[in-house]
Amino acid sequence: MRALLLISFSAAMAAIAAIFSGMDSKATGLNAADWIMYIGTYTRPPSKGIYCCRFQPATGRLTQVALAAETDDPSFLAVHPSQRFLYAANETSNYSGSSAGSISAFAIDTGTGRLKLLNQVSSRGAGPCHVTVDNSGKWVFAANYDAGSAAAFPIHPDGSLGAASTLVQHQGSSVNPERQSGPHAHAVTPAPDNRFLLVADLGLDRILSYPMDSATAGFSRDNVRSAALAPGSGPRHLAFTPDGRTAYVINEMLSTVTSFSYDAGSGRLRELQTLSTLPAGFAGPNSTAEIAVHPSGRYLYGSNRGHDSIAIFKIDQAKGTLTAAGHASTLGHTPRSFAVDPTGQFLMAANQESGSVVVFRIDPGTGGLTPTGARIEVPFPVCVVFAAGSIP
Predict the structure, then answer these.
(1) Over 60: is that where the pLDDT of 27 sits?
(2) Phi, psi of 97, deg, nearest 5
(3) Burial degree of 150 (CB within 10 A; 0-12, 13-18, 19+)
(4) What are the phi and psi torsion angles at 12 (to 5°)?
(5) How far apart are the first and last CA of the chain?
(6) φ, ψ for residue 261, nearest 5 deg
């Protein structure tokens, strides 16, 4: 199974975490601003690529959706810290006649939301399913699911990408012969301090921690650390708390979330706890997808595909451990992705198979989710990200 998405502008998130340290949801400069919401899709008809709309955090309102750029299977998106560029993982396996996908670089028109293609490079592996930008804005990282590899790409001053500077090919397998007969890199997540790149590999039941090399190569293949998950877990995506002390991994195959303490000096993960993302008594088929920490650091969210819900957890900010705090129906089928908006007031759930993005208001006191009634129709949505800008 292939990936979707999450927000990727770390500098903004750090500022927002400070604003929300007291969970004051009154209007601020950030709250008053409008944002462009981009939606990555699978380009099965009628989808044509990346879509966009205007999001108004003062009201939670979304404008009518428009096509931002035509491109093949842009299943995961990431926004540059400058808010000027957007990158897409084109989840294909036939780029320029090779058995690889591609990574596309776009310039953002903040007045219209339209995207201008800057260039496209080989992902150096089949089925790229996740892409992110490092906190310095100098590197794009990609996870190639089908190939089981991860790669780094230098960002040029104009926002375009260079060819891959580093490629690491994972080796091995795990206990599920259908899903884990080989490696399947599923997410590439820089630590908040930009010192290590954590790669979740579903096929290996491991999180690999690579030292980052911002000067020349993006990341290093030397002195790699590894953390194991329970056999058959299928780790998919990873999210850090704002202080960088705790990391959470959502496990696709077992429908669990694992909490880890994180040592910023060594890149080492130490398991703290594993909890189910499902309510007691649910016996239907399910797989998980996205995970996100609220900017306040007080709540964690994860999506269930099958139960079709967002699982809500409270975070013990001293210990990093979780307490289950309920579920909210996504009011659609197969929530492949969701995103918390930059102000921390709303959560947008992308229901892939029912073709909708539904808006929920976040209760600042409990982390609970209440549908606002706002929604847009988008064919096969699989990723949601935000960029600064105001479009009609």
Answers:
(1) no
(2) 80, 5
(3) buried
(4) -65, -40
(5) 36
(6) -80, 145
Query: Any bridge partners for residue 71, and if so which?
Result: none
Backbone φ and ψ of 162, nearest 5°: -90, 170
215/16 Cα distance (integer angstroms): 28
Task: Give pLDDT tens digits for 130-175.
Answer: 999 999 999 999 999 999 999 999 999 999 999 999 999 999 999 9
Coil, strand or helix at 152: strand
% of the chain beyond a pLDDT of 70: 92
Q: Which pLDDT score is estimated for 26?
A: 34
Rg, Å, the chain Cα set: 19
Provide the residue type at 151 as one letter: A
User: What Å distances lie between residue 68 and 4, 16, 84, 98, 119, CA to CA?
Assistant: 18, 27, 14, 27, 16
Q: What is the pLDDT of residue 25?
A: 34
Task: Tell me the C-alpha distance between 215 and 242, whole Å.
Answer: 25
Digit-coded pLDDT (tens) for 98-126: 999 999 999 999 999 999 999 999 999 99
pLDDT at 299 over 60: yes
DSSP code per residue over 69-117: EE-S-EEEEEE-TTSSEEEEEE--S-GGGSS--EEEEEEE-TTT--EEE
Q: Are 265 and 294 in contact (CB under 8 A)?
A: no
Integer Cα distance of 392 and 305 in angstroms:
33
Which residue ranges form the domains of the chain, and what is each CATH number?
10-388 (2.130.10.10)
